[in-house]
Amino acid sequence: MPVTKEAPAPYAPSAVVLSLIDRYRQKGLPVPISTDTLARAGVGESLIPRSLYALRILDLIDADGKPTNLLEGLRLAPENEFKSRLADWLRSAYADALNFVDPAVSDQTQIRDAFRSYRPVGQQDRMVSLFVGLFQAAGVIPDGKRVKSRQVTKNGDVVRRPKPVDVAPNPQPETTVVLPVTKQVPTVNTTIASQLLEKFPVFDT
Q1: pLDDT per residue as tens digits for the range 117-170
Q2: What are phi and psi of 25, to 5 degrees?
Q3: DSSP secondary structure letters along 81-120
Q4: In the chain, which ranges are E strands?
Q5: How far apart are CA 154 and CA 13, in angstroms?
Q6: Chain-centre distance for alpha carbon 49
Q7: Residue 74: which of 22, 37, 34 has the closest Cα?
Q8: CA atoms of 50 and 89, how far apart (whole Å)
């Protein structure tokens, strides 16, 4: 089922979706794939509903929780074909958004704009994170080019970075120069000295 603005778009963390695909490829998953299956696979409780919905809307499981032919094809794909199979799946799943954006060359703003008409509006940042994460895993977004998406916690919450605070540079400590104290030599009053010499005669030694 292609992702369109007619129905709520998936917004689970890409890491969860990719880990479930990898688990199905390597070990398999109990069928039907349900909330209990995801819990046993280690998906956090708060992420289970949106992750299960993402698997359905991205055509990996059907309404009864059974793996689709698409998911089965990903499981059987040889390692050297896996990324190209992922890319084919994503081009089909996101065909509507890809009419307006090319993840291989588009920047963050262009990708974000492609999702502005999708619902729920409050989850559009997470939709973009899922889209970017999946296309990076498929190798569609080149290794040398990384589209920055909002950082998401394990619970799927968008990390809000604190605004930088301007901090005044530390003032340089004032240097106090201590000057040496010079001893003041008392001056002799010459008038008094002369009077004393007149009063008392000088004796020869």
Answers
A1: 999 999 999 999 999 999 999 999 987 665 655 555 545 555 555 555 555 555
A2: -65, -40
A3: HHHHHHHHHHHHHTTTGGGT--TTT--HHHHHHHTTTSSS
A4: none
A5: 8
A6: 23
A7: 22
A8: 19
Q: How far is CA 171 from the centre of its chain?
A: 34
Spatial neighbors of 123 by CB under 8 A, at least 6 apart, are: 9, 11
Structure tokens given for 166? 């301007």
Backbone angles phi, psi at 158, to 5 degrees: -70, 130
Q: Are 25 and 74 in contact (CB under 8 A)?
A: yes
pTM: 0.72
- What is the residue whose two structure tokens read 């005044």? 168
Q: Which two tokens stand for residue 6?
A: 């007619």
Q: pLDDT tens digits for 24-54? A: 999 999 999 999 999 999 999 999 999 999 9
Residue located via tokens 């703003």 = 109
Q: Which of 16-23's residues contact partners 24+ apart within 8 Å by CB, and which partners?
A: 16/43, 16/47, 16/51, 16/54, 17/51, 17/54, 17/55, 17/58, 17/130, 17/134, 18/133, 18/134, 18/137, 20/51, 20/55, 20/60, 21/60, 21/71, 21/74
